[in-house]
Amino acid sequence: MKRTIETIQSMKPAGEKVVALTAYDYPTTRILNQAEVDIILVGDTLGMVVLGYESTTSVTMDDIVHHTRAVARGNRTCLLVADLPYRSYTSIDLAIANAQRLFEAGAEAVKLEGCHPEITQALVEHNLPVMGHIGLLPQTTDRFRVHGRRTKEAQEIFDQAGRLEKAGCFALVLEAITRPLATEITNSLAIPTIGIGAGVDCDGQILVLHDMLGLFDRFTPTFVKRYADLGKVISRAATTYRLEVQQGLFPHPDHTYK
Ligand code: KIV
Fold first, then answer.
1. Quick check: is 244 catalytic?
2. Which end of the chain offers a freer environment for a tag, N or C, measured as fewer CB atoms within 10 Å?
């Protein structure tokens, strides 16, 4: 079944958890379709886990457009959300133009970091659905820390959630905030919350695929569960291939035209 914004929103009242992962290419997208994931995010983590940039701030619109196209070619069932990268939504007009580029590339919604109700509302009014993202904001934070431990900050994040829902976000990512705050926000909103480091009470969860598959080891936040160690699997396969080529064991007659 193809997930749409409506199907994602209907999951909250039905008590069904929304399952989201990042993906940046065609083969992975096909695998995530088979795994019945609900949302694929072409996140700006692309910059760090695939392109080798130091941070997400180097990611360009061209980077996200290129990878959104690849994901769209493989996608049949997931809702495809693409990130508006750093500095691509510094004004309403720029945000609309850049979101339109992502939709032309195959995105069905865009995600933008921070509390920007005016920009969100303008995008929604142009039929460009928006997923919000509050809490830890990697595009503008220089250090990783949990948000919402202090009462004032918790209140600010809670207020931002309400403002973004009012502005028209169809869902909201909550990154690296305390579980009680995430629970309070989740209970107060009609739209689904998608947590990453925000505890189990969110309406759904998202992880960066390369973190959960063991393909990125520069750092691993506490909230990441490693579901596989593909880095080791690939390394073992490449080493075996190297040894077989060096020893003249590959190609075998089975892999040779007679
Ligand atoms: O870019 C990304 O992968 C994200 C996730 C951290 C949600 O925004």
1. no
2. C
